[in-house]
Amino acid sequence: MVATVPSATTPVAVLQNTAVALARLGRPVRFVTAYADDEHGRLLAAHLGDNAVTPGSDPFVLERTATATATLAESGAATYEFDIDWRFNLPDLPDDVVPVVVVFGSIAAAIEPGAPLVAAPGRAGTGRRR
After folding, report:
1. Distance CA 121, CA 99 (A)
2. Separation CA 108–CA 116 (nearest Å)
């Protein structure tokens, strides 16, 4: 997701931040996400690539990248407008890659249509062992 305010646009998402932090600690990270081949998607792709985060599947599946627009009132209170289209490609991991940890979250993990998609990789990997 990309957050915008009148003076700035920045890639922002809790799990994206987790992926970047793990990669900066030297851990190999394969991150499954979705965005469009648009200005915001290219911003996300560059941010992840600049931080050595490897895509876990082809992320270019959306017509537009999800955004959250924050508007600040004079009092400092924020209101948010979300534009989200949620779907992604399932992870495509080589046979020699066995996940040590799988982290998932966001609103997509809890509601339709994303919840079954988010749960599928975890179920598929339950039989794989090192």
Report:
1. 10
2. 9
